Amino acid sequence: MKYQWILFDADETLFSFNSFLGLKSMLLKYGINFTLEDYDEFQSINKPLWIAYQNNEIEAKDIQQIRFKKLSEQTGVEPLILNNQLMEEMATLSHPLEGVKSTLDKLYGIINMGIITNGFNALQQKRLMNTQMDKYFDIVVVSEMVGEAKPSSKIFEFAFAKMGSIKKEKILMVGDTLTSDIQGGINVGVDTCWFNHTQSENNTAIIPTYEIKRFSDLIKIVCGKI
Fold this sequence. Notes:
By secondary structure, this protein is α/β, with parallel strands linked by helices. It has helices at about 20-30, 35-55, 60-65, 70-75, 80-95, 100-105, 120-130, 145, 155-165, 180-190, 220-225, and strands at about 5-10, 110-115, 140, 170-175, 190-195, 210.
């Protein structure tokens, strides 16, 4: 078998992540009808924060605080509490993308698998348990616990330390985002697989080792026909 380990991104690689529905559901409890226009305003603040986080310009707590400032003023609830409540909603709403569970079933027991994701600790284990997918993964590494996000080499090296003695040519990084997942894998010298389920054009200089549009195609890459 070509690889001994697969490291997966989480959001929009393994799981759906509809943050609009999560926010809408959470804010209904406060009597707020959260609209798509409200979401666009939220994302105009949220997205640049995540870019700054990936560039190691701010910390995870800064995202949690700043993006919920306006909603905190509306609800009278502290930003960090609102952030944790959103994570609770997302742990319930997120579900495996098409082909993920059947593919992981086929890979389970014949290759080590882990998650390396940019995000918050509060979400990950609850979501894995809610979806009954925790059994598949030997390690789960979250940027909040490391202090740096993909594509930083630091989060990958943190994962490698948990994986034990393993040659980098035996590791495959799989993710949907070129600038964090694929560039991060390239930065540390492992093969990469771009899960391009949205069939986007690659207009960057970032070249993955593989590109797949269906999650199940990963089986052929990793170990041929099963």
